[in-house]
Amino acid sequence: MTARPSSRSVRFLASALAAGALMATAACSDDDGDSDGGAAAAEVAASPLAAKSPTASPTASPTGRLTAAGARAALLTEADMEDDWAQVGDKEAASWRENMLVGEVDVAEFLTAKTDAADCQQLLDTLYSDDLLGKPSGAGALRGFEQGDSRLLQQVAAYDKVALDESLAWLKTLPAECDQFTATDDTGDERTVQVTETSVPNVGDARQGLHVTVQGTAADTPATLTLDVAVVRVGTDAITVTAGGLDGGEDDSVERAVEQGTQRLKDVQAGRTPAADPGEID
After folding, report:
1. SS3 34
2. Using an 8 Å Cβ cutoff, are 144 and 153 in contact?
3. DSSP characters for 68-81?
4. Tens digit of pLDDT for each residue in 26-63?
5. CB 206 within 8 A of CB 168
6. How far apart are CA 202 and CA 260, in angstroms?
């Protein structure tokens, strides 16, 4: 007489058969190359790193163009900065103007090409007005920081791709065309301007750095204004960082700002919210 299997054994057998069916289905999926993505997605979702990853950003544009909210999200924060940089109000930063940059370039110094004088004049004028790359074609935002008597200004904006490439190419010519020249202000005071090329961290799609010094007077006292400038293109968007003052340049701070600012812009372009703490992306 054959023993009748217990109900517990029946349930166990059913479970085993169901598990076997699932494994067979997974094996078939492996043959099609589809299951790896699902397993990988499950592992990523369960990993501790996924919990720390930037979340989807409400500032992303469905067209891929930088939005006003996205430009603001890409701006640096005090957490991105080292040393004692303190953020200032947006209106204050937008009104920053350095009077030592105001002057008319002496064309007579440019014996080989008067167009060089026009380029040097454009450099002074756009540094003063914070339009080094020209007017943006889309959304833009800026943020300023202070440390002692030094200032750091970051700008993020969308540009026409052709115009942006032309601006970067123009910046690259300035250390040769405008290595040293004289500018005269409306009171007749002369200023000696020197422009050299500086290195920029290897980030973004294209980049250019400048070191600009202006020797003259401020409040009837001999003074030298020193500015470190870096521009980085990421797609059709760009960040511009300008820092310095009468106390000297800020090349280390500019490098840090470029690295963190480029990463923030890339996060926004990818539809992610930039990390609140830059240590989260190290």
Report:
1. coil
2. yes
3. HHHHHHTS--GGG-
4. 344 444 444 444 444 343 333 333 333 344 454 555 55
5. yes
6. 12
State the CB neighbour count (10 A cutoff) for residue 92: 11
Quick one: DSSP state of residue 42?
H
User: Above pLDDT 70, what percent of the chain?
Assistant: 74
Residue 113 confidence class, pLDDT cut points 50, 70, 90: low
Instruction: Give the single-character DSSP code of 57.
Output: P
**Distance between CA 282 and CA 279 in Å, rounded?**
5
**Distance, CA of 159 to CA of 163 (rounded, Å):** 7
Task: Quote the distance between the C-alpha of residue 245 and its chain's center.
Answer: 21
The C-alpha atoms of residue 46 and residue 23 are separated, in whole angstroms, by: 21
d(CA 65, CA 78): 26
CA dihedral sign, ordered 155, 158, 160, 164: positive
**Side chain identity at 130, as an amino acid letter?**
D
Three-state secondary-structure class, residue 157: strand
Instruction: Name residue, tokens 């800026």.
Output: 142
Distance from C-alpha of 184 to C-alpha of 204, rounded to nearest angstrom: 37
Whole-angstrom Cα distance, residue 210 to residue 226? Answer: 11
Does an H or E element contain 131, and which? none
Terminal alpha carbon distance of the chain: 72
Count the neighbouring beta carbons within 10 Å of the beta carbon of residue 147. 17
Instruction: Using alpha carbons only, give the angle 272, 200, 89 rounded to the nearest 5 degrees.
Output: 60
Nearest to 153 by CA among 82, 79, 93, 209: 93
- The residues pairing with 239 across neighbouring beta strands, listed in sequence order, are 156, 232
Q: Which pLDDT score, from 0 to 100, does residue 111 have?
A: 62
